[in-house]
Amino acid sequence: MTERGKVREIRDGLVIIAPDRSASCFGCMNMECKSAGFLSAENPHALPIEPGQMVELHVPGRSLLAQALTAFLPPALGFAAGYALTGLVFPQAAEGAAAGMGLLLLFLAAFIAYKARKKSKADRGFAVTRIIA
After folding, report:
1. pLDDT digit string (tens) for 4-13?
2. Contact present, 40 and 17 (Cβ < 8 Å)
3. Same structural domain for residues 49 and 91?
4. Based on the domain organization, do 116 and 126 belong to the same domain?
5. Domain count of the chain?
6. 113 and which of 73, 74, 75, 107 could share a cystine (Cβ 3.0–4.6 Å)?
């Protein structure tokens, strides 16, 4: 994923960037920058960045894969566990009850994953890749 923005400041080795709204990322619906309006990124290539410059940010595919797995895997496992456990605990239960319990655990697992993600504020992996002239 590639994003563009204007450098606001450089603080503690992080580059604070105001995203370019014309090139906003539809995939995340600007959830990262919606609260403060800014993105933070590393400068791994030690580019000569100054406030006011336009830069391009990149998130590696590995980071995106990790984010996707943490978003999709817990609900799927929650559904599978709910469906299987209903059959084990209540052998007389109908298939609809097992599916209902699976859905309940699907939403519970999704909610827990959401809250854990919001609380952890894990590194999103943005890195400045180039300065745009």
Report:
1. 888 888 887 7
2. yes
3. no
4. no
5. 2
6. 74
Checking if the pLDDT of 33 tops 60, the result is no
The closest of 32, 39, 36, 33 to 16, measured between CA atoms, is: 39
Residues 97 and 108 occupy one common structural domain: yes
* 44 plus 33 within the same structural domain: yes
Residues 54 and 70 in one domain: no
Q: Which residues 6+ apart lie within 8 Å of 41 measured at CB? A: 14, 15, 17, 57, 126, 127, 128
Asked whether the beta carbons of 84 and 101 are under 8 A apart, the reply is no
- 41 with 53, same domain: the answer is yes
pLDDT tens sequence across 37-78:
677 788 888 888 888 888 888 877 787 788 888 889 999 999
Q: What global pTM score does this model have?
A: 0.60
Q: What's the token pair of residue 107?
A: 């939403």
